[in-house]
Amino acid sequence: MAPMGIRLSPLGVAVFCLLGVGVIYHLYSGVISSRLAAFRSQTPLSTQQRRTVDLRDLLAVSVEAAELGGKEVKQVREENALQEKSKGKTKEGANDPLTMGDLQSHRKMFYLLKNTFPEVMVNSEEHDNMEDNSIQWSQNIPGAISEKFKGSSDIPVESITVWIDPLDATQEYTENLVKYVTTMVCVAVDGKPVIGVVHQPFAGFTAWAVVGHGSNVNRRSSYNASPKKVIVSRSHSGKVKNRIRNAFGNSTTIIEAGGAGYKVLSLLDTHSSETSLTEEADVYVHTTVIKKWDICAGAALLTELGGQMTTLKGENIDYRGAPENEGGLVASVGIDHEALLKRLRGNTDNDKQ
């Protein structure tokens, strides 16, 4: 007798097919999931989710970078190992020097920032090809900074632009007029200066501020609304004196000084014990092209302390894009800034600094 075969009803056939499809789908989806997980593990985090940087960490690294660069600047000067060269002429025709202090400070500052925050845009006045991955952040958060930040303040990396000046006042540095020398770091967010660090390596003083969080420096107790003292560039003072005297009167004292960082500090309280680390001025005026790495840190300091730094036309400076600010600048704190601008605009000639 022939063995009986198994016969499935149409309903059984349908159930059997559905079970088969389910098994195949389960196996296939497992393969897809594992491959997708492997792809994600190889994809940079920045493409998977929005990357952020803690503002407190940015400030701590910025202070450390400025002070690390300052040590290089000071050591090169004290060893008289400047190896001075010229980068050419400025637009005003002055010599634009370059020293070993500029370069060694740049390497320390730039790579400390880049090694800590590799996705952040860092712009430096200097450039070289000696990459150094050994420079690492100490992970130290100074107590004064911790006091200002009680919690995290995360900033998207794509909104951040960092400007560093490894040695401000290089001309004065070569002349051993070291009181004017600073190293500076500025963090701009969406083009607005938010963190400013100005370090004086030969005085051992660091000023810093974070807009909206505080600063370790203060405004002076008083300023002259009709400025008695206006600080300008030492190396290109020229016709700016006429413009200032036409605006504020012949009795105005004009202070010629090196370094944009020093000039901003001259508007603030920089006393150490009984000694002021800078001359005191009421207003800072510059009438020609100036680079953003020269002024961004000072702008952040002034903003946090209720001051302003604008172009001569009163425009806010965007700290993104090209490094040149071609609109000149007026910087003040504790004074009616718009009134200063109106008086300076009253001089309509084309005097240049």
CATH topology annotation of the largest domain: Fructose-1,6-Bisphosphatase, Chain A, domain 1
Mean pLDDT: 86
Distance between the termini: 117 Å
In CATH terms, what is the architecture of the largest domain? 2-Layer Sandwich
Number of strands: 21
Helix content: 25-40%
CATH superfamily of the largest domain: Fructose-1,6-Bisphosphatase, subunit A, domain 1
The CATH class designation of the largest domain is Alpha Beta
The tally of domains stands at 2
Major β-sheet strand ordering: 4-6-7-8-9-10
**Which term fits the overall shape?**
globular
Q: What is the strand content?
A: 15-25%
Give me the number of helical elements. 10
Written account of the structure:
By secondary structure, the protein is α+β, with helices and mostly antiparallel strands. It folds into 2 domains: 52-215, 2-Layer Sandwich (Fructose-1,6-Bisphosphatase, Chain A, domain 1); 218-345, D-Maltodextrin-Binding Protein, domain 2 (3-Layer(aba) Sandwich). It has 10 helices and 21 strands. The chain has helices at 10-42, 45-48, 55-78, 100-116, 143-148, 170-174, 240-248, 260-265, 292-304, 337-345, and strands spanning 52-54, 85-89, 95-98, 121-124, 154-156, 160-168, 182-189, 192-200, 205-210, 214-215, 218-219, 229-233, 253-257, 268-269, 271-272, 275-276, 283-286, 290-291, 308-310, 324-325, 329-332. The strands form 7 sheets. Strands 4-6-7-8-9-10 form a 6-stranded mixed beta sheet. The longest helix has 33 residues, at 10-42.
